[in-house]
Design brief:
With 291 residues, this protein is mainly alpha-helical. The protein has helices spanning 2-8, 12-49, 53-58, 71-78, 82-113, 119-131, 134-147, 155-161, 166-178, 181-189, 194-205, 207-223, 226-231, 240-243, 245-248, 255-288. It is globular.
Length: 291
């Protein structure tokens, strides 16, 4: 009986081990498929940017091009004026981030540290603002900005991008809650005002959250085409994304030049994310843990 039990019985550890290996293999297969789905369009676009119009029409999309052919990129920088778009994009990003950071952090500080009437109503309005589609709010936002006289200027997208959103409120609030209220009280005993408490104590401790939100916001602004295209139709105010419209029209557009322009526009956002990705995850994790 002992021999039959030792031979015929399968240990649970063996079954669990095989189950874990099968699960790991399936996970790797799924991740590989997702990676191919994500990177395949990028690879095809890179190859197309080094090809002529005839090669794009004849060659297989994944056929290696001649990387010495740079006429498409030269056209992007000369005819497309991509450097002008880069300058406008950087200016909008920097100004919007500065305003957005201070508005978001001060709003979170106020909502967390002070009790006042209609506090819950204000929080509910932020939630409602995230639920309502952007295109619905555009009906009221466009006439408002037009009446302010900022249409077809850089102030229009800056005002929109500087607005505080719910994600900012949530992440900043998580960080503010971890800061002891005794620091505020000690500063007030020393004669510090509320603005002094915020700028001297609270805001320096919010730098991890600021780095996280700033990087995410910068990438969103750099990739946004809708707002600059709608509020800045002037050719002198084009950003990197709206510059792509010159190469996508049926009259003057071409797939090879459009592919080169897409790669040029993609480089800054990819660079920002690769360099600062550790700050993104560090800020989100630090704000999610409540002690």
């Amino acid at each position: 009986m002992k021999l039959q039990n030792s031979v015929g019985t399968v240990k649970p550890s063996v079954i669990n081990g095989k189950h874990v290996r099968i699960t790991s293999v399936l996970s790797y297969i799924i991740m590989c498929i997702i990676t191919v789905i994500v990177f395949l369009p990028i690879i095809i676009t890179v190859f197309a940017s080094f090809k002529t119009a005839a090669q794009i029409g004849i060659d297989f999309p994944l056929k290696m091009p001649s990387f010495s052919y740079l006429e498409n990129y030269i056209t992007v920088f000369t005819r497309g004026k991509i450097l002008l778009g880069f300058k406008n994009s950087v200016l909008i990003v920097v100004v919007s981030l500065v305003l957005n950071t201070f508005l978001g952090s001060m709003t979170a500080f106020t909502l967390n540290r002070f009790n006042f009437r209609f506090k819950k109503v204000i929080m509910a309005l932020f939630v409602i603002g995230m639920v309502i589609p952007v295109y619905v709010t555009e009906i009221a936002r466009f006439p408002l900005l037009h009446s302010l006289g900022v249409y077809n200027t850089m102030f229009a997208p800056i005002i929109i991008y500087a607005a505080t959103d719910l994600m900012q409120i949530y992440i900043y609030t998580q960080f503010v809650e971890k800061i002891s209220v005794s620091l505020d009280e000690s500063a007030m005993l020393d004669g510090c005002s509320y603005f002094g408490i915020f700028f001297r104590i609270i805001f320096p401790l919010l730098l991890p959250a600021t780095a996280t939100l700033g990087i995410i916001k910068a990438v969103d602004i750099m990739n946004d085409m809708y707002i600059p295209y709608l509020y800045m139709p002037s050719s002198k105010l084009r950003t990197m994304t709206t510059t792509l419209m010159d190469f996508s029209s049926s009259r003057a557009g071409s797939w090879e030049i459009l592919s080169a322009a897409i790669i040029v526009v993609l480089i800054p956002t990819v660079f920002i994310y690769i360099v600062f990705q550790k700050f993104i995850f560090a800020g989100i994790v630090a704000g999610a843990v409540k002690e």
